[in-house]
Amino acid sequence: MGGVNREETSARRRRGLGATPAADRAPWHPRRLRDLLRLAVADRQAIDADGLLPPENELMDEFSASRTAIRDALALLVDEGQIERRRGQGTSRVASYIVFDIAVPGPQDIDEYRRLTSGVVPRLLHRSWTPAPAPLARRLTGVATGEPCLAIEYVLNARNEPIAVITNYLRASEGEMVAEVPFVADFYTFLLDAGVDIADQATTLQARLADNEVAPLLDVEVGSPVLAFEQAIRNGRGEVVDVALGVFRDDVRMTASNFVYRPPG
């Protein structure tokens, strides 16, 4: 009781558990290696000027993996449509990502945030006052069922392509501040320019398939994978002032940067 089983310990060392990692090729499972190689596909610094990934021998050295493991992992990425392999020509990236930052910028970060989102343009579909149904009222701070909130539905475009269909629901107090303001930038900039206090956010994500309502708006086929989300935007007092519901196209990489809200002064 409480002792060390020498036979078990020796067996663990033979399996590489609890021992110093060996310097030879790691026994990568293709799934885990695929996930790491997907990072290389997404990382522009890992791609050369011709859009090619490093050759197999360089990937073997970089990941300390066998040639078979590298090839198996690359085959999985081919199946995903991330890369294309041509004999004698190398491995090229097929997938193209749009990076979208969901973090709320603090006052000291707003200039950098505007620069990063300068190519994001909304196409307004609908803006009107609507009574808050119970599920929405429960999420908005201080809003009772049936009280008015401002609904703003739009298609978000980046690089001249639709990347998301979103509806934001603002409390009446914040909605009144933006009800007549032109909506021509990303939503955070829209709120900040109107003087709305926003401090942070929380987002819930779920994989879904595009239905016949959002598919044409996103320029994808019905049944294509999309990323559905629910977002709560809070002010500096921790009150939820806005709830957003929407879907992103599957070629969007969502990030939460290190923008940190710091009250002025």
Describe the protein's architecture and organization.
This protein is an alpha+beta fold and 265 residues long. The protein has two domains: 6-93, Orthogonal Bundle (Arc Repressor Mutant, subunit A); 99-255, Chorismate lyase-like (Chorismate lyase), CATH 3.40.1410.10. The protein has helices at residues 6-14, 30-42, 56-63, 67-80, 110-116, 134-139, 172-178, 187-193, 215-218; strands at residues 83-86, 90-93, 98-101, 120-131, 148-158, 161-171, 200-209, 225-234, 240-249, 252-255. The strands form three sheets. It has a six-stranded antiparallel β-sheet. Strand 5 and strand 6 (161-171) form a beta hairpin. The longest helix is centred in the N-terminal third of the chain and has 14 residues, at 67-80. The chain is elongated, with a radius of gyration of 24 Å. The chain starts with 5 loop residues before the first helix and ends in a 10-residue tail after the last strand. 22% of the residues are buried.
